[in-house]
Design goal:
Strand content: under 5%
CATH class: Mainly Alpha
Number of helices: 5
Number of strands: 0
Low-confidence stretches: none
Mean pLDDT: 87
Distance between the termini: 40 Å
Structural class: mainly alpha
CATH topology: 434 Repressor (Amino-terminal Domain)
Largest sheet: none
CATH superfamily: lambda repressor-like DNA-binding domains
Shape: globular
Helix content: 55-70%
Length: about 90
């Protein structure tokens, strides 16, 4: 039995990528438009949105700038995941 995806993306990278995609779509930007606005390559942006690339701080700042949002907005889904984990009984350390 072979797997089509032998190395699934890291859940945290995927959460950031999903947030970027949501913000991009809310603004009506295509991948090409956001890549141009942020100075990134189209392919690089795809990898980030799919959780396949661990983007550096400067790259995330460029994406946030291209989306006209504060950089912290890119981490909203991570904050929600943390809040959900606490609600499920996991205590913060």
């Amino acid at each position: 039995m072979s797997s089509a995806d032998p190395d699934p993306p890291d859940p945290q990278l995927l959460a950031i990528g999903m947030q970027i995609r949501q913000l991009r779509e809310e603004r009506g930007y295509s991948l090409e438009q956001l890549a141009e606005r942020s100075g990134l390559s189209f392919r690089g942006l795809i990898y980030i949105e799919h959780g396949r690339r661990n983007a550096g701080v400067l790259t995330l700042m460029r994406i946030a700038s291209g989306l006209d949002v504060p950089p912290g907005k890119l981490f909203d889904r991570l904050s929600n995941q943390h809040t959900s984990a606490e609600a499920e009984g996991e205590s913060p350390q």
